[in-house]
Amino acid sequence: MVKTYQHRLYGVALRMMGSWAEAEDIAQETFVRAHRALAEFRGDSSLSTWLYAIASRLCLNRLASAEYRIARSRDAGSVDDLIGLEEEPGGDLERTEREAALRRAIGELPEERRIVVVLRDLEGLSYEEIATALGLELNTVRSRLHRARLELKDKLEGYLA
Amino acid sequence: MTCAENREQHSALLDGELSPVERARVEAHLADCPECSAELARLARMVGMLHALPAERAAPFFVDRVLAAVRPAPWYARLGRRLVQPWRVKLPLEAAALVIVALGAVYVFQKTPELQQAARYQAPAPAPTPAPPPPQTPSPATPPASTPATPPPVGQVPAAPSPAMSDERQRAKTAQPEAPARPAPSAPAPPASLPGGALSKDANRAESSKLEAPAKGPSPSEEAVKPQAAPAPAAKEAPKDKDSVSREGERAGEKKGDGARMDAQAPAAPPAQAEPRRQRLGRVAPAAPEAARDFVPPDASGRLAVGDREAAERALVDLRGRLGVTEAFRRDAGEGNVVIEMIVPRAALADFTRGLDGIGRWTWDRDPSTLPPQIRLHILLAR
Fold it and tell me: A3 vs B43: CB contact, 8 Å cut-off?
């Protein structure tokens, strides 16, 4: 289970938290909790949706905690660390810039929209799976996803021409 | 259907989440409305950009760490941890152990006249040589490092210094004028009569202790070789930026020992000799079982994607040699990949990662949040 899902859960946590250390912490905590609660897993959803649900809840709880908010306001550079612009050996600077801008824009989305975009567009979950993982109505998922994409489109207008 | 209503459905249309009826209505509007069509095209491009973002990868030893966190420790480990982990218990225990060891050492020393004698006459008397007088005499505030272990008997003030004492004094004297000669290689070399045996012995000791623990930072014996560092800490720090990077790399067990560096006339060890030494280092370093080391998270880690693994290995060896980086251990990561642990001096980290970029496509998995003097960097070398 850990080998299969490590990169996906780490990716979700990284996009949500904006720091490698936090992402690794969240991903590890996800597996530890899943291991403890494996007997309670009823199979109503797929194992991956269940893991995404745990990881998403952990991320949103951590982001909402007062402790985290204070730490983030003190160290405002963590998201910027993640999206640092680095030229690749291949020299595809334009693509690197575009990706950095996209990562930055995702990091600036409100958290409840960011998680929907991450699960849908980066992890490829269906609307139903997202609704199950986040405990939301289908229409809420649809609406949040559309709002998030419009916000991203406005921020990345320069790269869409 | 208005344009606003139509655009609300664009995301669902792109994801194929509309019912056939809704889809028909939206597409009918798009056929007549070029603005909405253009808007949909821009949204589709943006979604395409999102889908094209490369996937993130967890650190190489993430699975091991998770498994270690999930598996409960055995009862004896938990008991041991409970006994020694609280600082209020552990610290007094450690302090008491230290005191007991120190008292024992003093007791043994006092009860063994052979040891005292050996300490007093530890070095054979050197032949008196016409050494130039040192520029300054050692001040009483800075006694030579070797004297505390061999205090002269109380009341014994030698009118004419014994051969052993003169040896110690001479060593103390020569250590002081040598102090400025270390950071500046152009300074005059120590006199020929300098007790080179003693100094190179210290150097060898420092070297061997580094071989045993290359990643532990400066060893006590290495500190003992540098008595000049204590009175002028600023002077010690200043040259660390540029020149001492390569010098530190050499000290980390690569090419030259301290003794070789002190002798300006001694030829530098050729790279062909240095390489086996590095290999020796690599073999000595993983003293702990490899499985146990896996659970120790590195200071930083990343992935080096290369086309030709053998060429990359050669380039890595060359890069390591240039920057004073040592390879601590390596393990097979499956699928032809390998994880290498490098010990990178802090000052060389930027150059080293630039060099990795030149070898292949280097991506950080875990950034070095704290920077110890010797950074343990895990590199996943993959095709």
Answer: no
Q: Say what the ipTM of the complex is.
A: 0.84
Q: Which of residues 4-23 of B touch A (CB under 8 A)?
A: 8, 10-12, 15, 17
- Contact at CB, B8 and A10, closer than 8 angstroms: no
CA dihedral B239, B240, B243, B247 (to 10 degrees): 130
Render each residue's pLDDT in chain B as its tens digit; 383 residues. 799 999 999 999 999 999 999 999 999 999 999 999 999 999 999 999 999 998 888 888 888 888 888 777 777 777 777 766 666 777 788 889 999 999 999 999 888 877 777 777 665 555 445 444 444 444 444 444 444 444 444 444 444 444 444 444 444 444 444 444 444 444 444 444 444 444 444 444 444 444 443 434 444 344 433 434 333 343 344 444 444 444 444 444 444 334 334 333 433 444 444 444 444 444 444 444 444 445 567 888 888 998 888 888 888 888 888 888 988 888 888 788 888 888 988 888 888 888 888 888 888 887 776 778 888 888 888 88
Residue of B nearest to A142 (CA): B12
By CA distance, what is A33's nearest residue in B? Answer: B70
Q: Which residue, among B46, B51, B71, B295, would best test binding to A if mutated, counting the most A CBs under 10 Å from its CB? A: B46
Of B355, B303, B295, which is closest to residue B73 (Cα–Cα)? Answer: B295
Separation of alpha carbons B335 and B349, rounded Å: 28
Find the CB nearest A2 among B15, B42, B66: B66
Instruction: Yes or no: say if B114 and B122 are a contact pair by the CB < 8 Å rule.
Output: no
Sequence-separated contacts (24+) of A87-91 with Cβ below 8 Å: A88/B361, A89/B357, A89/B358, A89/B360, A89/B361, A89/B362, A90/B361
Kindly list the residues from chain A whose CB atom is less than 8 angstroms away from the CB atom of residue B12.
Answer: 142, 146
Looking at the complex, does the CB of residue B354 fall below 8 Å from at least one CB of chain A?
no
User: How many interchain CB pairs under 8 A, A with B?
Assistant: 99
Mutate to test the interface with A, among B8, B19, B22, B56 (most CBs of A within 10 A): B56
CA-based end-to-end distance of chain B: 53
